[in-house]
UniProtKB/TrEMBL annotation:
<dbReference type="InterPro" id="IPR004821">
    <property type="entry name" value="Cyt_trans-like"/>
</dbReference>
<keyword id="KW-0067">ATP-binding</keyword>
<keyword id="KW-0520">NAD</keyword>
<comment type="similarity">
    <text>Belongs to the NadD family.</text>
</comment>
<keyword id="KW-0662">Pyridine nucleotide biosynthesis</keyword>
<dbReference type="Pfam" id="PF01467">
    <property type="entry name" value="CTP_transf_like"/>
</dbReference>
<protein>
    <recommendedName>
        <fullName>Probable nicotinate-nucleotide adenylyltransferase</fullName>
        <ecNumber>2.7.7.18</ecNumber>
    </recommendedName>
</protein>
<dbReference type="GO" id="GO:0004515">
    <property type="term" value="F:nicotinate-nucleotide adenylyltransferase activity"/>
</dbReference>
<keyword id="KW-0547">Nucleotide-binding</keyword>
<comment type="function">
    <text>Catalyzes the reversible adenylation of nicotinate mononucleotide (NaMN) to nicotinic acid adenine dinucleotide (NaAD).</text>
</comment>
<comment type="pathway">
    <text>Cofactor biosynthesis; NAD(+) biosynthesis; deamido-NAD(+) from nicotinate D-ribonucleotide: step 1/1.</text>
</comment>
<keyword id="KW-0548">Nucleotidyltransferase</keyword>
<dbReference type="InterPro" id="IPR014729">
    <property type="entry name" value="Rossmann-like_a/b/a_fold"/>
</dbReference>
<dbReference type="InterPro" id="IPR005248">
    <property type="entry name" value="NadD/NMNAT"/>
</dbReference>
<feature type="domain" description="Cytidyltransferase-like">
    <location>
        <begin position="8"/>
        <end position="185"/>
    </location>
</feature>
<keyword id="KW-0808">Transferase</keyword>
Length: 221
């Protein structure tokens, strides 16, 4: 068995920013992972459709991680028809990496609503969960999520290396308050979000005109 886990960080990445990248790098380093895969969601079942296209979001991740071998783009959800169910993504990864521990990385606010996810209990058949717990996140856990945490929690990091799936490990990273919604807000107001996301990603966003105010048409003037 390959004892170094592979991390899985999903999201819309609309757009990918330094908060995503720093968290992924923190996980790769602190948990001694082989690498962390950033998995953009095509059609998130529990929120509105992303503003940027699947191709744009994948391109930005590819550009952002191009010089860091421990971070990778995994675009399988963008290539799959239908809603992006995490349980299916993890099952496909498990089939490809039968001897490698997988760690699904998620915030406490997301974990709080995990029982609303499609076939959520099957996630533990394929992966561990690394629960990101920050002091500023105060999320009331669904009773079933709380029960899963109580039954599956481990405090020894080595368990994530020695077993393939089934446990929950809690980690508190250093604070880094950056959000994709704030970046979209700045761009929508014509302000600069520079230094909140990789320069190459921002340059491509500006060139493509994504998230930015559209010029008024003659009919609306």
């Amino acid at each position: 068995m390959n004892n170094r886990p592979v991390g899985v960080l999903g999201g819309t990445f609309d757009p990918v920013h330094n908060g995503h990248l720093r968290l992924a790098m923190e996980m790769a380093t602190a948990l001694d992972m082989e690498h962390v895969r950033l998995v953009p969601c095509a059609r998130p079942p529990h929120r509105g459709a992303p503003t940027a296209s699947p191709g744009q979001r994948a391109k930005w991740i590819r550009v952002a991680v191009s010089t860091e071998p421990r971070l990778r783009l995994d675009d399988r959800e963008l290539l799959r028809d239908g809603p992006s169910y995490t349980v299916d993504t993890l099952a496909s990864m498990r089939a490809e990496m039968p001897d490698t521990p997988l760690c699904l990385i998620m915030g406490r606010d997301v974990f709080a609503k995990l029982p609303q996810w499609h076939e959520w209990e099957r996630i533990f058949d394929s992966a561990h969960i690394v629960l990101i717990d920050r002091p500023d996140i105060d999320a009331q856990l669904d009773p079933k999520a709380l029960e899963a945490l109580e039954q599956r929690a481990v405090s020894d990091l080595q368990v994530l290396h020695d077993t393939l799936a089934g446990h929950i490990y809690t980690y508190t990273p250093p604070p880094l308050a950056i959000s994709a919604s704030y970046i979209r807000e700045l761009l929508g107001e014509g302000q600069s979000p520079r230094y909140l996301l990789p320069t190459a990603v921002l340059d491509d966003i500006m060139d493509a005109g994504v998230y930015q105010p559209q010029p008024a048409t003659a009919a609306s003037q």
